[in-house]
Amino acid sequence: MKLEHSYAEALPDMVRAAHGEEQPDPQLVLLNEPLAESLGLDVDFLKSDEGLKFLLGHSGTAYAQAYSGHQFGQLSPVLGDGRALLLGEISGQDIHAKGIGRTPFSRPGSDGRGALGPMLREYLVSEAMHALGVPTTRGLAVISTGRKIQRDRVVPGAIVVRTAASHLRVGTMQYAAMTDQIKPVADYAIARHYPGEDYQGLFRKVMHAQANTVAKWQRLGFIHGVMNTDNTTLSGETIDYGPCAFMEQFDINTYFSSIDTQGRYRYGNQPSILGWNLARLAETLLPLFDEDPNHAIDIANSTMAEFTDIMNEALDAEDVQEVDGDITVENHKQNPDSPITIPRNQPLDKALKQTTDGDLSYYLELLEAVKKPQEYHPDLSNPGDLEGFLTFCGT
Question: InterPro entries annotated for this entry (predicted)?
Answer without folding.
Answer: SelO
